[in-house]
């Protein structure tokens, strides 16, 4: 039995190292119809004023404000034909009119309009460019497009946009004990959970995924998969086999093909993690335990993929008080799953081997290496899934 | 000019009415591979214990606990060959062993193991079913599947799952002033924003969308689109033309084809909304203004679609103090877009005609009809987009 990982790499160092091992993806132009959740590759500058014409803000009559001056309930002004034009909310203002008298303050008598309230120039008129002014930066490079920002792009008649290409990630699970869902359960075996959780987590990040299946603990088979992954994808993710003992085939395989840069990270859970480089591409070996694999995914892979598409928009984080005291380990960066109950952050702790831990959680908190205790009631920042 | 909507329908009444006009979608069986964000149509009962064998929780030696009783640093117990078996974390426990002594408390001498700590039966052993116990309800009908819950399903070797079918929604924009992005901007016209915002908001809800394009203010054309929508979709959404004045073609069209049930809702923004029934299907006319259309979408259509798929999982809501005092209108249910800045809810108010309002927001708060003032610093519930 090997005697441990030696010196563990700190979470921050591992994260920074990962950034150096991937490249920003290229840009591509796509139709606005397909833009949902993609990341803008350039700033969008408004080329059209919105509205690009003066609009009525109310139902009523477009007038020249000066003709209403002095009008009141007791002394209405009477406007002759051509001095007023009926208008509905949102309609373009007639060229020579500069205000709208709300219908409530008017009465029609044949061709004349009695106006019981004076309006000032511009009153009840939406000016040109009040929503969007030509030349302003509407959306910034790095923002992830949502239904609302796509609407803003449509207002500018932007039919194609330049976005970052989706990162392409190859993935496989390793281990003699891992069964595909087409196999029968026998003693000591478990079904492949990680390829489902990781593939779907990648899809939520708008990545393209290449599922390379399950590989047994055989060095040549593992090496073949790693090579296949580096050829087809921007980087290779795998789970299992990065621990010690029988499961160190990943270390040897990466060493044979390239370079092992990190083996063992000071995170909890998720220590047995490997960072390597093969064919100048990142190979990231996650732990085999489903919860450990996913927790490393959330704290290491998510920021990495955000970096690859230069995504700047923030993730959903909220703040809530802890429901109970938490004791953490000095020297280990900890990922702690929590659920939100009665506006409190309730830790979900069933151990890193429990696959149900994360399914019950709403998000997670991160506890740095130097924090030993978080007290009950203390406010913590929660990243929502 | 018509003189108003008459009596407005309250938000709650409108919402309840909408529920009566749609049906729950059918169930369908889909492969687990395609399950992301779908809604479970049935409870999932565990059929496999996880783990389904006893596992070592630590690296060390599997032993019979009784053989270590009395062991201490000063008085180690010496175990002969066959009384201990080397084991790594996660490996199946040998049948006759019931505990694991951590490697730190052992020393090997030839064939014997010196054990400097006593263990109790079950110590450092993960029991069968400790994560998932056969027979328990793992996931409930109505929960929306995420990467983590899909992992739980994989652990149970569930290759196909029964989910609610996606609602199918037909949509069109109406108005002579509405241009497609292929047309040139001229005085008084605006580009079709709503079909982009609404279609993408529907996609985020995992609906199937049928985009019926843009229809001019012509009754026969509108009627044709409504009929096409009711034939192809579970319900029809449209925007524009549900106001007064020139834009009442939607009211007349729905009246000709079926029944207008509500015209005008006491919400702000979003009053000019129509609820009708054609071919026994809901026709929901949203306001033409992009922000009003979307705000009604979020407060009326989102709950409706959640109801159609019997979705129970909560949306992301957070609580934060208001950055400033808000005055609302008694008798109107108000949708107020907010952004989160320095953990405060900052209202984003540029008027319902502004398309940028929602693009800048992180979510919204709802202010009921009977609330006139929300004070600065008051905690409000925010539904995140």
Per-chain topology:
Two copies of one chain form a homodimer.
Chain A: H1 11-20, E1 27-31, E2 44-45, E3 55-56, E4 60-63, E5 77-79, E6 84-87, E7 99-102, E8 106-109, E9 112-115, E10 125-126, E11 137-139, H2 147-155, E12 160-164, E13 168-174, E14 178-179, E15 190-191, H3 194-204, E16 208-215, H4 219-232, E17 235-239, H5 249-257, E18 259-263, E19 267-268, E20 274-278, E21 281-286, H6 290-308, E22 317-321, E23 326-327, E24 333-341, E25 344-347, H7 356-359, E26 363-367, E27 373-374, E28 379-384
Helix pairs in contact in A: 1-6, 3-6, 4-5
Q: What does the model show?
A:
Two copies of one chain form a homodimer. Chain A has four domains: 11-25 and 166-308, Molybdenum Cofactor Biosythetic Enzyme, Chain A (3-Layer(aba) Sandwich), CATH 3.40.980.10; 27-50 and 144-164, Molybdopterin biosynthesis moea protein, domain 2 (Alpha-Beta Complex), CATH 3.90.105; 55-126, Molybdopterin biosynthesis moea protein, domain 3 (Molybdopterin biosynthesis moeA protein, domain 3, Beta Complex), CATH 2.170.190.11; 317-384, MoeA, C-terminal, domain IV (Beta-clip, Beta Barrel), CATH 2.40.340. In chain A, strand 20 and strand 21 form a beta hairpin. In chain A, 20% of the residues lie in helices and 30% in strands. Chain A is built from seven helices and 28 strands. In chain A, the strands form nine sheets. In chain A, strands 16-13-17-21-20-18 form a six-stranded mixed beta sheet, sandwiched between helices. In chain A, strands 19, 22, 24, 25, 26 and 28 form a six-stranded mixed beta sheet that branches. In chain A, strands 6-4-7 form a three-stranded antiparallel beta sheet, with no helix packed on it. The mean pLDDT of chain A is 93. With 385 residues, chain A is α+β, with helices and mostly antiparallel strands. At the A-B interface, helix 2, strand 15, helix 3 and helix 7 of A face helix 2, strand 15, helix 3 and helix 7 of B.
